[in-house]
C-alpha cells in the first residue's frame, strides 16, 4: 500500500482487523493451490477446515424439484414475481418469519416457542453477530467469551464495531466446561482494568468442541448475566445438528421454564440456516431477541444485510412444509451420527482421542501424543506437517484461542464417505510413521516439562485468524457419478 | 465575556474581570469533567449524533450503572431504536397499514415516498418464465444440482455476476464507457454498498460533504454505524439545485476551522431527490476540487439507467476515461434496485478505481453478501444483452410518459417541479401552500397530505433542503389511471390553503 493511500483511507481499510494476515492462512492457500479430487487430484489437500454441512443437500434438491411453485422463476410461481421482486420491507415476508420460527422450534424438539415478530434478518450469521454487537456495545466495550471459540468471532464481533472479546479459559480436565469461577475471574479482571464488560457470548452447541451445554451451565450463565446486568448472546447456529444425547437445551428453553432466572431484555439468540440446512450460500442470518429495543434497532440495521426476497419466498415454502422439515431434521441427525461415529472410530483405531461430542459438523481431537513438546509452537509445527505432508487442512487449537496445545478441529460433513476414508487412511499412515520414528525414544509420548508454562505466548495470541470460510468455492464433495 | 452577577464581589475585589471570567470557566470545566468521569475510555469520539439524542429516555434504555438498572443498549443502538418520529418511518408505517389499491382499497394511502419502479417489472417476469428453466437447480453443466448454490461462495459476489453487472452498467451508460468486473465488489443492496465504502474511506469523526437536498437514507446508511458526519452543502432553487463548487469550498473551510477532517464529497447523479443530471463541466470541477483537497469523490449513480430527459447522462466514469485525473479517489455506487426494478433481490455495487479500497471492501462484503440463487438468477437475466437493451429502452419510454403526465398534472394545480432528467421522483415546489415559511410549516403540510389527503410524500426537510416547501414525489408506482386521483387529492389540500 502506497504512503498516499495510507493517508486517504480509513483505519478499517488499512488495518488488520480482517484477520487474514495470519500464518493460519497458509492452510487455506495450500488447499486452494492443490485441492483434492478423487479422480483428477487424488493426492491433493483434503479440506477439513470448513464446517459445511453437505450431507443432506439431496433432500433439499428433491423438494425443490417437487415444488416448482416455490420458485418465482417457474411458470407455477411467476404470478408472485412482481410482488416478490419489489418487496424490500425490512420486516421480511411474514411467511418467511413464521417458517423460520417454526423450524427453530422443531430443531429444539418443540421445547421452546419463538415469536415470528421477534425474528430479524441479517447478512448471514456473520452479519447477525456484527449487528448484535453494534446494538449492545460501544467501541472499547468488551464481551466475555469461553475458549476455545470460533476464530472469526474476533472479526465478526469486533472489526467494525470496536468491541473486544475477552477469553474465559476452559480446560480439558473438565471437558472444557465453563466454570463460574473462571467467568467471575475474567469479569473481575476486566473491570479492574477499567474495561466495560457488556455481555457474554457463547456458542451452543459449541464450535469447535461439538458439545451441547448442560442445563446447569446455562442457568449459571443466565443468572450471572442477570446479576451483573450484562447481556447473554447465544449463537445457536448448530442447534439442528445435535445427533446424539444428551438432549439439546437452548437458552430459550431455560428462559421459558424459569423467567425469573434472567431479565429477558438481556437474552439474545443468533441463528442461521448455513449449518442446519447446509445453505451458507443463501446468506440467511437471524437475530432473535427478547428485548424490544434490540429487535427494533436490529431490524432497522437489517437494511445492511436483508435476505433476498427470492430466497425468503423459497424458504418460506420449504420450511413451511412440516413433513419436509420433520424428515429433514431426522435424516440430518442420522447421517451426522453415522459420519461422526465412522470418523471418530477411525481415529480411535490409531490412538487419537476425540472429545466426546454430540453435535456439530466436526470433532475436536487431541494430537498431544504427536507433539514434540507441549507448546503452542510445537502445535503449529505439527499443523504445518499435517497440511504440507499429510495433506489435510485441519484447524489447530491455537486459532480457536485454546488454552492447551495439541487440540485440532477436523470437519467431516463437507465430504462424501470415500473422501473421509481417504482422510482416515492418511491419518493412520502418518500416526504409524510418527510412532515408528519415535521408537528409539521412551514409550510415553507425553513430555510434560514441569517448568514449561502452558499459556499461549504473546505472538500466537495475536494470530487473528481466518474463519473456516471458503477462499474458493470448490469443495471436496464430489457429485456421485452413478 | 460578561461578568456573572453573583461574582461581582470577585470582580470588585482584587483580580477583577480576569477572575470573574476565569472562575466560572474553571468551574464549568471541572463540572464537565465530573459528569463525564464514567464515560468509556476510548479516545475516538465516535458516538454519533449525541447532540441529537433526545434526553427523555424510556425505561428500558438508560440507567445508572449497577445491578438494579434496566438492560442497556449501546449509545448508537439506543438512538437507532428510538428514531420513531422521523417522517420517513411514520409515512412508511402508515402506508403499510392502509395501502391504496384501485379496486380493493380506493381510499387507502398512496405511497409516493418510496422509489419503486412498477412500470417495467412485467417485462422481466415474462422473459424469465419463457427463458429460464429451473434456474435454482441448474449448474454449469446443466445438471440438476443445488450444490453450487448452497455452499459458500466468494463473499463479494460470483465472478460471473460481476461480469454480467459490468456489462449491464456499460449498457446503461449507453456504451459511452466500459466497466471492468475486477473493479466491482457486490453487496446485498446499495445500502450496504454505501456503508461499506464509507467504512473504507473515513474514520469515526471524519466527514463527507454532501450537496443538499440529498437522499434521506444516507443519514442512516452513513451516519449510524460508521460515526462519519455528513456536512450539508445547500444548493438553491435559483439554479435548479445545481452543485456549486464555491459552496463546497466554503463548507470545506468551515469544517477545517472546526477541526473536522473532510474525507470525501458525496453526490448522486441523477440526483435523488431533485432528479437533475450533473453536467460534464461540473463533473470536471468536482474532480479538480477533490484532487486539490486530497479527498475522495463518491458518485451514487443508481438511477443512471432511468433517465427520460433530453440531456444525456454522463457518468463520472466517462469523464475519468477521457481525462487525466487521479482515479484512485473516485468511487461509484450502483445497484439493480432502480434500473432493473428488483429491490427485493438486494444487489448493490461498489465500483472503485482504487485497488486498496477494493481489497478492503471485498473483505467487508462478508457482512452483506448476495444470496447465491439470486446471483444465478440475475446472471441469466443480465446475460441476455438483447433483452436488456430492449428492456432499458422500453423502461425509459414508460418513465418519460409517466413523468410528463405527473408533472403536467401538478402544473395544472399551480405546482412547479424542478427540471429533472432522471430518477423516479418529481421535486415539487409547494411552498405557496405552507402557512409559515419554515420547516414547521412544511411538516404541517406534510401531515395534512398524509392524514387528510392520504398521500405520503417526502418533505424537503427530510432531504435537508434549505428552502422550505419542497416535496419529493415518486411517480413510478402509479398507473395512468391513478394520476388524476393523486391530483384530486392534492387539490383538496391546496385549495384549502
From TrEMBL, chain A:
Its EC number is 4.4.1.14. It catalyses: S-adenosyl-L-methionine = 1-aminocyclopropane-1-carboxylate + S-methyl-5'-thioadenosine + H(+). It is an enzyme of class 4 (lyase). One of its GO terms (biological process) is ethylene biosynthetic process. The keyword S-adenosyl-L-methionine applies. Belongs to the class-I pyridoxal-phosphate-dependent aminotransferase family. This is 1-aminocyclopropane-1-carboxylate synthase. It comes from Ensete ventricosum.
TrEMBL record, chain B:
GO terms for biological process: amino acid metabolic process. The chain crosses the membrane at residues 15-35. Keywords: Membrane, Pyridoxal phosphate, Transmembrane, Transmembrane helix. Residues 111-490 form the Aminotransferase class I/classII large domain. Pfam families: Aminotran_1_2. InterPro entries: Aminotransferase_I/II_large, Ethylene_sulfur-biosynth, PyrdxlP-dep_Trfase, PyrdxlP-dep_Trfase_major, PyrdxlP-dep_Trfase_small. GO terms for molecular function: pyridoxal phosphate binding; transaminase activity. Residues 61-85 are annotated as: Disordered. CDD domains: AAT_like (cd00609). Its cofactor is pyridoxal 5'-phosphate. This is Aminotransferase class I/classII large domain-containing protein. The lineage of its organism: Eukaryota, Viridiplantae, Streptophyta, Embryophyta, Tracheophyta.
Amino acid at each position: 500500500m502506497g504512503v498516499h493511500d495510507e493517508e486517504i483511507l480509513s483505519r478499517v481499510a488499512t488495518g488488520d482487523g480482517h484477520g487474514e494476515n495470519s500464518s493460519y492462512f497458509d492452510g487455506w492457500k495450500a488447499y486452494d493451490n492443490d485441492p483434492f479430487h478423487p479422480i483428477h487430484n487424488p493426492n491433493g489437500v483434503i479440506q477439513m477446515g470448513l464446517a459445511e454441512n453437505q450431507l443432506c443437500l439431496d433432500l433439499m434438491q428433491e423438494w425443490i424439484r417437487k415444488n416448482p411453485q416455490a420458485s418465482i422463476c417457474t411458470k407455477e410461481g411467476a404470478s408472485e414475481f412482481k410482488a416478490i421482486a419489489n418487496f424490500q420491507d425490512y420486516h421480511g415476508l411474514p411467511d418467511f418469519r413464521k417458517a423460520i420460527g417454526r423450524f427453530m422450534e422443531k430443531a429444539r424438539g418443540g421445547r421452546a416457542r419463538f415469536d415470528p415478530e421477534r425474528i430479524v434478518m441479517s447478512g448471514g450469521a456473520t452479519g447477525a453477530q456484527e449487528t448484535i454487537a453494534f446494538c449492545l456495545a460501544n467501541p472499547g466495550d468488551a464481551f466475555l467469551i469461553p475458549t476455545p471459540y470460533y476464530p472469526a468471532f474476533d472479526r465478526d464481533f469486533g472489526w467494525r464495531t470496536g468491541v473486544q472479546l475477552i477469553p474465559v479459559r476452559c480446560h480439558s480436565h473438565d471437558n472444557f466446561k465453563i466454570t463460574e469461577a473462571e467467568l467471575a475471574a475474567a469479569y473481575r479482571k476486566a473491570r479492574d482494568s477499567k474495561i466495560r464488560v457488556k455481555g457474554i457470548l457463547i456458542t451452543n452447541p459449541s464450535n469447535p468442541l461439538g458439545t451441547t451445554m448442560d442445563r446447569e451451565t446455562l442457568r449459571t450463565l443466565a443468572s450471572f448475566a442477570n446479576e451483573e446486568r450484562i447481556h447473554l448472546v447465544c449463537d445457536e447456529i448448530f442447534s439442528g445438528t445435535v445427533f446424539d444425547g444428551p438432549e439439546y437445551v437452548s437458552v430459550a428453553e431455560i428462559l421459558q421454564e424459569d423467567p425469573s432466572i434472567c431479565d429477558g431484555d438481556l437474552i439474545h439468540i443468533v441463528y442461521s440456516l448455513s449449518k442446519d440446512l447446509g445453505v451458507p450460500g443463501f446468506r440467511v442470518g437471524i437475530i432473535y431477541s427478547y428485548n424490544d429495543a434490540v429487535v427494533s434497532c436490529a431490524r432497522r440495521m437489517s437494511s445492511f444485510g436483508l435476505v433476498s426476497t427470492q430466497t425468503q419466498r423459497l424458504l418460506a415454502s420449504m420450511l413451511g412444509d412440516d413433513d419436509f422439515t420433520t424428515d429433514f431434521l431426522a435424516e440430518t441427525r442420522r447421517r451426522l451420527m453415522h459420519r461422526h461415529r465412522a470418523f471418530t472410530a477411525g481415529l480411535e483405531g490409531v490412538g487419537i482421542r476425540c472429545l466426546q461430542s454430540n453435535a456439530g459438523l466436526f470433532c475436536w481431537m487431541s494430537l498431544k501424543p504427536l507433539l514434540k513438546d507441549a507448546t503452542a509452537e510445537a502445535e503449529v509445527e505439527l499443523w504445518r506437517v499435517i497440511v504440507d505432508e499429510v495433506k489435510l487442512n485441519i484447524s489447530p487449537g491455537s486459532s480457536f484461542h485454546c488454552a492447551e496445545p495439541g487440540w485440532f478441529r477436523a470437519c467431516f460433513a463437507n465430504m462424501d464417505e470415500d473422501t473421509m476414508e481417504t482422510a482416515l487412511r492418511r491419518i493412520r499412515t502418518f500416526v504409524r510413521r510418527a510412532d515408528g520414528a519415535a521408537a528409539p525414544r521412551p514409550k510415553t509420548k507425553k513430555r510434560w516439562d514441569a517448568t514449561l508454562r502452558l499459556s499461549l505466548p504473546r505472538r500466537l495470541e495475536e494470530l487473528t485468524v481466518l474463519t473456516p470460510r471458503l477462499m474458493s468455492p470448490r469443495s471436496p464433495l464430489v457429485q456421485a457419478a452413478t | 465575556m460578561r461578568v456573572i452577577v453573583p461574582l461581582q464581589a470577585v470582580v470588585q475585589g482584587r483580580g477583577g474581570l480576569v477572575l470573574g471570567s476565569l472562575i466560572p470557566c474553571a468551574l464549568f470545566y471541572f463540572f464537565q469533567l465530573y459528569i463525564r468521569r464514567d464515560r468509556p475510555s476510548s479516545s475516538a469520539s465516535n458516538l454519533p449524533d449525541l447532540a441529537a439524542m433526545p434526553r427523555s429516555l424510556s425505561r428500558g434504555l438508560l440507567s445508572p450503572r449497577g445491578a438494579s438498572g434496566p438492560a442497556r443498549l449501546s449509545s448508537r443502538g439506543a438512538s437507532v431504536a428510538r428514531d420513531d418520529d422521523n417522517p420517513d418511518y411514520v409515512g412508511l408505517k402508515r402506508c403499510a397499514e392502509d395501502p391504496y389499491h384501485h379496486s380493493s382499497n380506493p381510499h387507502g394511502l398512496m405511497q409516493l415516498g418510496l422509489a419503486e419502479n412498477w412500470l417495467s417489472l412485467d417485462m422481466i417476469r415474462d422473459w424469465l418464465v419463457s427463458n429460464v428453466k429451473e434456474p435454482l437447480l441448474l449448474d454449469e453443466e446443466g445438471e440438476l444440482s443445488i450444490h453450487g448454490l448452497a455452499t459458500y461462495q466468494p463473499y463479494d459476489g460470483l465472478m460471473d455476476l460481476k461480469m454480467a453487472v459490468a456489462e449491464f452498467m456499460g449498457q446503461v451508460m449507453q456504451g459511452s464507457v466500459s466497466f471492468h468486473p475486477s473493479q466491482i465488489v457486490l453487496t446485498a443492496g446499495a445500502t450496504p454498498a454505501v456503508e461499506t465504502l464509507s467504512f473504507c474511506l473515513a474514520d469515526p469523526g471524519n466527514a463527507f460533504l454532501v450537496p443538499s437536498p440529498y437522499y434521506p437514507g444516507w443519514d442512516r446508511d452513513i451516519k449510524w454505524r460508521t460515526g462519519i458526519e455528513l456536512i450539508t452543502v445547500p444548493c438553491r432553487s435559483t439554479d435548479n439545485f445545481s452543485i456549486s463548487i464555491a459552496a463546497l469550498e466554503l463548507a470545506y473551510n468551515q469544517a477545517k476551522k472546526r477541526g473536522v477532517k473532510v474525507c470525501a464529497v458525496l453526490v448522486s447523479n441523477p440526483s435523488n431527490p431533485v432528479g437533475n443530471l450533473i453536467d460534464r463541466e461540473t463533473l470536471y470541477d468536482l474532480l479538480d476540487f477533490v484532487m486539490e483537497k486530497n479527498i475522495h469523490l463518491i458518485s451514487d449513480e443508481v438511477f443512471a439507467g432511468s433517465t427520460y430527459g433530453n440531456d444525456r447522462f454522463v457518468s463520472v466514469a466517462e469523464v475519468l476515461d477521457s481525462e487525466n485525473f487521479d482515479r484512485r479517489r473516485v468511487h461509484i455506487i450502483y445497484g439493480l434496485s432502480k434500473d432493473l426494478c428488483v429491490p427485493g433481490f438486494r444487489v448493490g455495487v461498489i465500483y472503485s478505481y482504487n485497488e486498496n479500497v477494493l481489497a478492503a471492501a471485498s473483505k467487508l462484503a462478508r457482512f452483506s453478501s448476495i444470496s447465491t440463487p439470486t446471483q444465478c438468477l440475475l446472471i441469466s437475466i443480465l446475460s441476455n444483452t438483447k433483452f436488456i437493451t430492449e428492456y432499458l429502452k422500453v423502461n425509459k419510454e414508460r418513465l418519460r410518459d409517466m413523468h410528463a403526465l405527473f408533472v403536467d398534472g401538478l402544473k395544472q394545480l399551480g405546482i412547479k417541479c424542478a427540471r429533472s432528467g432522471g430518477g423516479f421522483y418529481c421535486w415539487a415546489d409547494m411552498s405557496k401552500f405552507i402557512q409559515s415559511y419554515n420547516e414547521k410549516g412544511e411538516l404541517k403540510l406534510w401531515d395534512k397530505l398524509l392524514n387528510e389527503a392520504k398521500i405520503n410524500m417526502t418533505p424537503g426537510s427530510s432531504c435537508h433542503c434549505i428552502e422550505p416547501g419542497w416535496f419529493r414525489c415518486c411517480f413510478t408506482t402509479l398507473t395512468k389511471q391513478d394520476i388524476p386521483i393523486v391530483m384530486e387529492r392534492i387539490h383538496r389540500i391546496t385549495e384549502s390553503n
